[in-house]
Design a protein that fits this description.
The structure is a homodimer.
Chain A lengths: L6 E2 L19 H25 L3 E8 L5 H10 L6 E5 L5 H4 L5 H5 L7 E5 L8 H4 L5 H20 L2 E9 L2 H13 L10 H6 L2 H14 L7 E5 L3 H18 L21
Parallel strand pairs in A: 2-4, 2-5, 3-4, 5-6
Antiparallel strand pairs in A: 1-6
Helix pairs in contact in A: 1-10
Chain lengths: 269, 269
């Protein structure tokens, strides 16, 4: 499947033009098959990334509440080797974090060579919720776009491929998810009445997303707007982009540091 | 005393034109008096910085071996409140540090609001020793200048004043310090035969310093070339620049969060 129409590399963005629900014309059964194969491929590519230990991948996930960030991560990481995969979840900044620049806590968690890092929320919160609530002025938001681009270019120079996903849903879909969180006792903990206040600011969030994705995207550090309401399609798209990203890195298993002619499986004891 | 002739804000630099030994025309006795007063002023200003807890200072110290970085820090910090002052000494990067971009370990140690951070060596090693030994190519060095400027501008935006000192000495002075390290048993530990190899690369180091100071300096993030062979003058100059820096920040003691008319020293028990 071709996901290029969901890819942003700096062009202006109108989220209204992006679908929130897609199946790619495939049946559920077919999507499951495709997903299974992609996960196998990604796992294989991850092994080479880990063995080579020269490059890394940073996956950034952003979305409105209840769009499925947690389930995306659950599905994706179940198929990765956790030894080479670190998930970082960014909550409201602590007092210590606020006493530093907004990238301080994020940079500290950037993946080391050989790793896949996954950010559940990220430095983009500092130009999303912060912008929507006017916690800093617009000049500072503009400077933050630049700081974000600088940061992503710094880690790119060290061999980190950055790939960013916005899980795109409609307000109606969000409401249905909130309702289901209230109806199912074991999901109650995920509901936060404060989310209803943020929900009222939907158009402002969409506009903040559009600005961030327009100002902080490039071929080297693209955004993808993922139609996230069909979870199978979502998983397929994310796995596919991750697979393409890993393939483009051409990771190589390291050369043995011993003379392979001197050691054979049946000569050692 | 006026130290503006030692200040670099981006102009081209010829270290051969900078003195390594100065007294500012003052007697030893006079310099000691001036230094004492400056230290008191700096301590007072540090208290306001700490109480305000909105801004911070980053002091970067770079120099050839045996130029007096350790003694500079010892003298300066003896007069600061250690609770609001953190010294970070950057050695050869560890395996974990090398598995990240070169600013990762440095950013992690950037001072929080209210603090004075002192870097004994710094991110500039990555464009000094690394450049002299061609451990990375020249294109990467140029990109690192840009990454350094971006990083310093990021923390400046959060309220961190960056001030950078190059302790300037002559090769002859260095030799005399090495000899004294060998002659005094309690100083032997500071001698490292490898330093003699670096010493042979003196002109290359000077050239790397010149390039770094030309490419990574601005009014907001200046370099100072400190004549470092007279240690009294060195201390005076550094304290004076630090004092001016702190004064320019206009730190204010926070407003009390209680009604001062309701509480008096003799009304509470």
């Amino acid at each position: 499947m071709d996901f290029s129409k969901y890819k942003l590399i700096g062009q202006s963005v109108d989220l209204g033009e992006f679908s929130t629900h897609e199946t790619g014309g495939e049946s559920e059964k077919e999507l499951k098959k495709i997903r299974e194969k992609l996960w196998e491929d990604v796992a294989e590519l991850q092994e080479a990334l880990y063995a080579e230990s020269k490059q890394s991948v940073l996956v950034v996930l952003q979305a409105m509440d209840a769009a499925g960030k947690d389930s995306t991560i659950e599905k994706l990481t179940r198929n990765l080797n956790a030894q080479g995969c670190k998930v970082h979840s960014f909550k409201s900044p602590t007092k210590l974090e606020k006493a530093h620049d907004f990238l301080w806590r994020v940079h500290a968690c950037s993946p080391q060579a050989g790793e896949i890092g996954i950010f559940n929320r990220s430095h983009y919160e500092d130009v999303l919720i912060v912008k929507v609530h006017n916690w800093v002025d617009q000049d500072e938001i503009i400077r933050r776009y630049q700081h974000i681009n600088n940061f992503e270019s710094l880690i790119a120079d060290r061999g980190t491929k950055v790939v960013k996903f916005m899980l795109n849903i409609s307000p109606e879909y969000q409401l249905s998810r909130f309702k289901s969180r209230l109806e199912r006792a074991e999901k109650n903990w995920k509901f936060n009445p404060g989310d209803l206040d943020e929900r009222k600011l939907w158009p402002d969030y969409m506009s903040a997303f559009e600005d961030a994705m327009q100002n902080c995207a490039s071929e080297a550090s693209p955004w993808y707007v993922v139609p996230a309401q069909d979870r199978l399609f979502r998983d397929v798209m994310i796995a596919s982009v991750l697979k393409d990203t890993l393939e483009s890195m051409k990771c190589e298993y390291p050369e043995p540091e011993f003379d392979v002619s001197e050691f054979t499986a049946d000569s050692i004891s």
